[in-house]
Amino acid sequence: MLQNTSSPRGDLSSPRGESSVNVIGAGVAGSWQALLFARAGYRVTLLERDDAAMTQATSHWAGGMLAPWCEREGSEPVITRLGIRSLDLWREHLPDTPFNGSLVVAHPRDRADFERFARLTTDHERLDADGIAKLEPALDGRFREALFFAGEGHVEPRRVLPQLHAKLAEAGGTIRFQAECNPADLDGLVIDCRGLAARETAPPGLNTRLRGVKGEMIMIETAEVQLARPVRFIHPRWTLYVIPRDNHRFMLGATSIESEDTGVSVRSALELLSAAYAVHPAFGEARIIELGAGLRPAFPDNLPRVTIDDSRIAVNGLYRHGFLLAPALAELTLAYVTRGAIDNEVMQCS
């Protein structure tokens, strides 16, 4: 997949003191770009129009699942390939990242959908009811079988983004919040990771095909259920994921809606909450803490792009795989700048 071009990016291939890199967008994509470039010795500035809370970022509403093998069910092989590489980068740069695996369950009436998921995915172990109970005691007696993806992990986006920003500062990088900027006004290499906002200033044809895909979430709180890993619940109409958070909280998510509205619909809320109740009845007594939605930037094929245009590189279209793909895409961008390497599946020159 990787090829070397005839030469790296000239003066930008030299490390600290000789070249500057401006990364726009401090969400998960931009934060990983900034971190890897800083650790490679570049003089990095990370620019973000939001404040440090990052409540307007797509990352704020993300699930944070690092599940490359589960994602094989509905994604192209490149997502799994890059996702597997990202797992190593998460382990290397944030060693405390939890890798407790993912659990996929379904009720007997949905056995056909469960088996379809099993056929389309890899690197899982089948568990019977006893195996489920040993892994997740809270689910004892709830399901007859499950798929356990032992190599997968998850992060809490609202906690891990500040950690990435802190790692950037430790590596000598600078982060500036509430810094609205136009890529054309910046010197040096510019890496644009603004998601949908990049449509406003992109050269003609570069990001005009971007669209927003709404992902809704509900945060609930209950001490009656304890889970150590994300649980995906297979259903004929939707697949729910329940992701454990700190302080007895759980994130419920699943929706991918072709809309750039950021509200949570009654239908989606009912379906997410009903599915959570089907996973465990105790969720019926949980408190609803928060409802919200983020817009995932996506190209028509739902695959990411690293687009190279003069002294500007655009990293966009991560769709619903932002936390899974961001580290690997940052590594590819760095490889291009330092030695001219090209990954033909995701990189293109305009």
At a glance:
The chain is α/β, with parallel strands linked by helices and 350 residues long.
Explain this structure to me?
With 350 residues, the protein is of the alpha/beta class. It has two domains: 2-62 and 156-208 and 301-349, FAD/NAD(P)-binding domain (3-Layer(bba) Sandwich), CATH 3.50.50; 102-150 and 211-298, 2-Layer Sandwich (D-Amino Acid Oxidase, Chain A, domain 2), CATH 3.30.9.10. The protein is built from seven helices and 19 strands. It has an eight-stranded mixed beta sheet. The protein has a seven-stranded mixed beta sheet with strand order 9-3-2-10-17-16-19, covered by helices on one side. A two-stranded antiparallel sheet has the order 1-18. A hairpin with a 4-residue loop joins strand 13 and strand 14 (249-253). Helix 1 (28-39) runs parallel beside helix 5 and helix 2 (77-93) crosses helix 7. The two termini are 19 Å apart.
Using the alpha-carbon principal axes, give the shape.
globular
CATH superfamily of the largest domain: FAD/NAD(P)-binding domain
* Average pLDDT level: 91
Radius of gyration, rounded? Answer: 20 Å
- Strand count, sense and closure of the main sheet? 8 strands, mixed
- Terminal Cα span: 19 Å
Please estimate the helix content. Answer: 25-40%
Q: How do the SSEs run, as a string of H and E?
A: EEHEEHEHEHEEHEEEEEEHEEEHEE
What's the total number of strands? 19
Query: Which stretches are low in confidence, meaning pLDDT under 50 for 5 or more residues running?
Result: none
Task: Count the domains.
Answer: 2
CATH class of the largest domain reads Alpha Beta
Strand-residue proportion: 25-35%
What is the name of the CATH architecture of the largest domain? 3-Layer(bba) Sandwich
CATH-derived topology of the largest domain: FAD/NAD(P)-binding domain
Structural class of the secondary elements?
A: alpha/beta
Helix tally?
7
